Amino acid sequence: MSRRGTPHLPSQGGELGTAAPYYPRLGDLARDTSKGGEIGVVIALPGEGRNTYHLCPPGGGDKWSAPNDGNTLRPVQPQVTHITPLKRDVTYDGRAQHGGLPVTVHYDDGGTAESLLVLDPSQLELYHYQVGRILALRDKDLGGLL
To answer: What are phi and psi of 11, to 5 degrees?
Structure first.
């Protein structure tokens, strides 16, 4: 059996890191580190007579090229749009003196992730008051409908 090199090992000339290489696809948004982090839409891939990625700003504008290995391109992370509570029970850690509220994080690309909103005692008091205000405003609004 032949032994393959492992380019992720520094002893074999690879850079130390944990991230997989990023190879954007046509239409992807990419952040170009060689252009100060500018974001562009990938409009052409290396190959078929091109030896670079071609990008343009999402709203249009001057196009630019990036190396064919994609080493200056990074994925653009989806942005959080809102967070909603999950229908699960809350927790309280008496030792750490913080409460936990299970939540769903919603992203602008339609994705979601479950997480935990951790609140210290002063934040618990603040949100107790704020949720009470929301309920009072709701009751006032519903009172006008009856």
So the answer is: -65, -15
Amino acid code (one letter) for 18 = T
pLDDT for the residue numbered 50: 82
What is the residue whose two structure tokens read 């080493």? 71
* Cα(83)–Cα(5) distance, integer angstroms: 45
List of residues 6+ apart from 54 with CB closer than 8 A:
42, 43, 44, 63, 64, 65, 66
Reference 75, options 20, 133, 112; nearest CA is: 20
The rounded Cα 69 to chain-centroid distance in angstroms is 23
Complete DSSP assignment for 20-73:
PP--PPTT-EEEEGGGTTEEEEEEE-SBTTB-EEEEE-TT----EEEETT-TTE
Tokens of 129: 């008051």
User: Would you say residue 101 has pLDDT above 90?
Assistant: yes
Tokens of 134: 């929301």
Is the entire prediction scored with pTM above 0.85?
Answer: no
pLDDT tens digits for range 37-57: 999 999 999 987 788 999 999
User: What pLDDT was estimated at residue 22?
Assistant: 85
